[in-house]
């Protein structure tokens, strides 16, 4: 885990996110917190991660999501060498299906 991001302010933000109880509350909070482009970028990265996990090619991912190859590469690095955050969420969501 990157200790550079571990600050009291980030802790408070994560506590706020963890307090949200519905998708509607998430929409309200994140629309206030982020610009539309920031939120769309976050969702794009998540979609890219999901497609990489499903073994889609960079070309397929770029065509479907509009993500640049640089973004796809960065997400791929996170999947392969990151803190397994994506994997944690994918596994939890798979268990809810």
Sequence-ordered SSE layout with sheet pairings:
Layout lengths: L7 H12 L3 H11 L2 H18 L4 H8 L3 H13 L3 H12 L1
Protein name: YerC/YecD family TrpR-related protein
Pfam family, one: Trp_repressor
InterPro entries: Trp_repress (IPR000831), Trp_repressor/repl_initiator (IPR010921), TrpR-like_sf (IPR038116), YecD_YerC (IPR013368)
Structure write-up:
With 97 residues, the protein is mainly alpha-helical. It is 76% helix and 0% strand. The chain contains six helices and no strands. Helix 3 (36-53) runs antiparallel to helix 4 and helix 3 (36-53) packs across helix 5. The protein is globular.
- The sequence of SSEs as H and E is HHHHHH
Residue fraction in strands: under 5%
Unreliable sequence segments: none
Compute the number of helices. 6
- Strands, count: 0
Query: Averaging pLDDT over every residue, what do you get?
Result: 95
The share of residues in helices is: over 70%
Shape: globular
Radius of gyration: 15 Å
> What composes the largest sheet?
none
Structural class: mainly alpha
Distance, first to last CA: 29 Å
């Amino acid at each position: 885990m990157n200790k550079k991001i571990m600050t009291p302010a980030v802790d408070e933000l994560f506590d706020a996110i963890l307090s949200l109880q519905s998708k509607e509350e998430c929409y309200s909070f994140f629309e206030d917190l982020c610009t539309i482009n920031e939120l769309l970028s976050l969702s794009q990265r998540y979609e890219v991660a999901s497609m990489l996990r499903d073994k889609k090619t960079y070309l397929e991912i770029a065509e479907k999501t509009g993500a640049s190859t640089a973004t796809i590469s960065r997400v791929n690095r996170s999947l392969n060498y990151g803190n397994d955050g994506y994997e944690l969420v994918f596994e939890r969501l798979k268990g809810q299906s």
